[in-house]
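Quick one: structure for this chain?
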Amino acid sequence: MSGPGGALRVGLIQTRTPATHAAALAHVAPLVREAIAQGARFVLTPECTNVLQKDRAKLLPTLTALEDDPVVEGLRAIAAETGTWIDVGSALVLREDGKAANRQAVIDPTGAIVATYDKLHMFDVQLPPKDGKAGETAKESATYTPGERAVVVDTPLAAFGLTICYDMRFPALHRALALAGAKVITAPAAFTRPTGEAHWEVLLRARAIETGSFVIAAAQGGFHEDGRGTWGRSIAVGPWGEVIGKLDHDEPGVLIADLDLDAADNARAAIPVLANAREFTGP
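Got it. Here's what it folds into:
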């Protein structure tokens, strides 16, 4: 499932998504168009591109099926108009069974949704205290149903492995994506500020190194209408662990990165950890 070699220009969109769908589309659409105007052939938006609202009572009544979501519809129209691949890093939507999902959607240049991925790992944590204040508590599983399958989408540009935010802490998922042919792994996120400061870049670089893959991470950033704070610092990492480009802030913006896809093959040939891993017993 490996895609072609050569260069690929990607656009990573950093947003501060509002608490309503209409405002979210008005916020993200100009940034997506800016990336396309700069030559991006694949554009990745962050987790929760369509809405950020931590009050479940306010959020859940606004959710629709993926195909009916107004932000997804708007981005599908831009993809078709411009002939660009757009990856909605995630949209908060209703599943077919009526439960909520945190779902990534890959849109092809005709505007069709060609792949989806529901976030596998739920962010259920109690962060430690800091500066005399209680640590943040999160229980994503109280709102969303986790996915059950890993997804690699093969495109004419490259093979992309799909992950969302907290997934980056689980190396086995990334190894499975690389073994299935992914050369580029997406990591759209709405990372908390304490964990972002401590872990964001080092985790993404580790996932790139251990799989010989590009990792592209489009992020939410700043302080949102619903009261949460997110880390920003969108980043593109190469398969040797090198930082290809990053935003050193949490403001909305666009990061353009040029990926030499042959570098993934070169890194995997130089240090063949995917091939050398062995089964073991114990401890």
